[in-house]
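Lab meeting, item 3. Inverse folding demo.
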């Protein structure tokens, strides 16, 4: 899953760009522009940190809260859930994840985990992605976690590839 969070507010970024252009065009106001840039930067950082703290402070969320998360927040939340379930060395993969969003270890096995925050059916392509990425990440087993449900073909493909599927019901059980 790409690590772009396009649903976040771009307000501070727009202010940052406007102030940078102003500073370039009106060099006499550089000090004011630099102060404005610093304020915009502080706002962007504080907004991001407040999102992280908000989700980490509330380990138990309602299904509606999960449905409102963006993809990256959902991945981070699932990583925290896995840690509470006894998984070790839990880490999110790089921006272009090749089909595995989280790598974690439990019971001597290295798991490649794909996370899908969907509003519709998760189809077989998601299973194909995580199963084929196992070797790339040196993983033993595959798992697919969603806030939704799986298509019949996805369930069949997962069964034939020893891929664990966690659907909305299973996710809610993990949440507690």
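The presenter then showed the designed sequence:
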């Amino acid at each position: 899953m790409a690590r772009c969070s396009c649903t976040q507010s771009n307000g501070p970024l727009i202010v940052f760009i406007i102030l940078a252009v102003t500073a370039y065009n009106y060099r006499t106001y550089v000090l004011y522009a630099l102060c404005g840039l610093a304020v915009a930067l502080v706002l962007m950082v504080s907004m991001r940190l407040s999102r992280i703290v908000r989700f980490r402070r509330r380990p138990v969320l309602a299904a509606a809260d999960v449905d409102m998360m963006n993809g990256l927040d959902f991945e981070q939340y699932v990583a925290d859930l896995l840690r509470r379930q006894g998984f070790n060395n839990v880490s999110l993969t790089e921006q272009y994840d090749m089909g595995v969003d989280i790598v974690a270890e439990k019971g001597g096995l290295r798991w490649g985990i794909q996370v899908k925050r969907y509003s519709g059916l998760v189809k077989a392509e998601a299973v194909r992605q995580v199963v084929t990425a196992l070797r790339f990440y040196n993983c033993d087993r595959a798992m697919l976690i969603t806030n939704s449900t799986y298509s019949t073909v996805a369930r069949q493909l997962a069964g034939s590839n020893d891929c664990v599927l966690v659907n909305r019901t299973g996710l809610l059980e993990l949440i507690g």
